[in-house]
Amino acid sequence: MAQSLNPLVAGLRSSAIRDLLALTRAPGVLSLAGGLPAPDTFPADRIAEVAARLLRTDPAAALQYGPTEGEPRLRAWVAAYEGARGGDAVDPERVIMTAGSQQALDLLARTLCTPGDPVVVEEPAYLGGLQALSAAGARLEPVATDADGLDVGALADRLAGGLRPVAVYTVATFQNPTGAVLARARREQLAGLARRYGFTVIEDDPYAEIRFGPATTPPVPPVRAFDDGEHVVTLGSFSKTVAPGLRVGWAVLPAALAGPVARLKQAADLQTGSLGQAVVADLVADEAWWAAHLDDVRAGYARRARALVTALAEVFGERLRVGTPRGGMFLWGRFVDGTATAPLLTAAAARGVAFVPGAEFFVGAPDPATLRLSFATLGPDDLAEAARRLGRAHRDLAERSTGQLAGSRSASS
Question: Considering the domain 44-286, what is its CATH architecture?
Fold first, then answer.
């Protein structure tokens, strides 16, 4: 007899990006698909040195069970970091360390949502966010984005029309997939709407430190900076700045959510790994090293971004429009000649290059001419070659379409 599954689990769609990993592991394939951090940004030698010292000097602390809420030193560091970003004091008791920010999102979705509850999401949106919210039974309500991020004015109209979400989920800074940055005025308006209508803003912020502007340009404050402390959750992660394999992230929570989320995490996994937290706590405690490391990470990704933008312009000209990335790991593109990117992916795979069709990031009606390209993993030379392969695939698809059209006309005459 077939096993009976929870309908929420049975109905989950797989991540197209995860499904593409098998293709991208094939020999010779250049992947612009997954947002995998570049291995050359991982401070492997430093991690090895720190881990060896911790295991030698205090193995019990590094290998024993620890508090569900997280390693106290690291929670204190996150509280100070987030307080400085938001211009307010953050109590470490409001910080919970998680297995990457993805776990924090899952815990929040299950804490805030009961099946059928509406949650507003960006359109297009981060696939992992859609999965976590759907697994909790949320009814996803998409609101469009533009170059300045979530259209908060459109959200205000929906709220005035009667929509009552339990949460709004946004990747406000260097959004995945579009790379957009939610404008400061919109952040302030979003926090105000949360207070007025009583919903929680889930601000997923894993790319905040990967910014490409001049060092003297201050970053936009998080949405939490405009809140009263009760309506915004900020999620962060060391996956993009240290290494994703350590699985260390965090959530800064309103006081009313800290206890419930901690209890749910305790039921899920007891705690985030002690060794990974201890290593990260040691890394960030060295302020000079940490600052220099972040500068290197930013510079490396900025070079990659420039390389891909330049190569795409050379290959496609005006046929493919992409934004100029200000940070993060992604380019969002749209073919103005009407090229559908789902069949283009098949042609691209045959040419040894992969990307993600934009339709995968939509809850509502997708734009079939869009695609997401990640510049994070490959080096500049491989990014240029990936763009050339994508250009060849585009020509292959156009020639195939022309041939099919000619054959159809011949058959009908």
Answer: 3-Layer(aba) Sandwich (3.40)
